[in-house]
Structures are given as structure tokens and as C-alpha cells.
Design goal:
Layout (H helix, E strand, L loop, with lengths): L1 H19 L3 H4 L1 E5 L6 E4 L4 E7 L9 E11 L2 E5 L5 E7 L2 E3 L5 E4 L20
């Protein structure tokens, strides 16, 4: 009986840990910043990313910067590798990428769970 319980527990742990992992293919797509709709990060199937982000405040000459690099995925952690070798980690939670500054980026064509359930009211008041 103990062997059976250990076996079942091991299977459950494998299923749970596998469920938390994200495949690189699931990450592919464009994620728009929740705080600035002009900022985005795009992940491609070949392990590359392209980022457009607001530059330092007050830089009117070049208000946005772009960065290209590579990425890797381990479970729910995405590691971005910049051209100079620097790395930054982020997390994936459903269709939301959360960068190392806790900034949220929503996958284009999706809506984060916290924003779902918005009720629309008919103009006449009748439903």
C-alpha cells in the first residue's frame, strides 16, 4: 500500500511540475505593455526577441529604444539575453509576461484573467 501511495504521489508531482512548464512555442507572439500601449516585446519561434520600450524620460530626440536578443524558457521563467551578454529574467502567467521590474505585458489577442468579466450595458438600459 505504501508503494502505491508513493507511486501515485510521484505521478502527481510530475503532472503538476509539467503543468507549470511553458513550451517555447507557447510563448511565441507579441506582448503589449499594460502601462504603455506603444511598448511591446515579440518572441519568435527561433528563440529570438524584439523589444520596443520607452527611453529615459526627457529624451525627446529618441523617445523609444529597440533591443534584439535571444531568449530561453525554463518552466515559467523566461531568460532574455541581450547583445552585450547581460541577462534579464521574467515570468509567464497565462497570457501575461511579467518582466524583472514587475511590468506586465499582455499577449496580443488575449485578455488577462483579472480584466475579464467586464459587463456591457445596453444604452437604453434594457438587457
Amino acid at each position: 500500500m505504501k508503494k502505491l501511495l508513493v507511486y501515485v504521489a510521484a505521478i502527481v508531482m510530475v503532472i503538476v511540475s509539467t503543468g507549470l512548464a511553458i513550451a517555447a512555442g507557447e510563448l511565441n507572439g507579441t506582448y503589449i505593455s499594460k502601462s504603455n500601449k506603444n511598448e511591446y516585446i515579440a518572441f519568435t519561434p527561433d528563440g529570438k526577441f524584439f523589444l520596443k520600450q520607452q527611453n529615459a524620460p526627457g529624451n525627446t530626440e529618441k523617445p523609444y529604444i529597440t533591443v534584439e536578443g535571444t531568449y530561453s524558457v525554463a518552466k515559467d521563467t523566461v531568460t532574455l539575453v541581450l547583445p552585450d551578454g547581460a541577462e534579464a529574467d521574467g515570468k509567464i502567467q497565462g497570457d501575461v509576461f511579467i518582466d524583472n521590474e514587475r511590468k506586465q505585458w499582455v499577449k496580443q489577442g488575449s485578455q488577462p484573467k483579472g480584466d475579464q468579466g467586464i459587463k456591457l450595458r445596453h444604452q437604453s438600459g434594457n438587457l
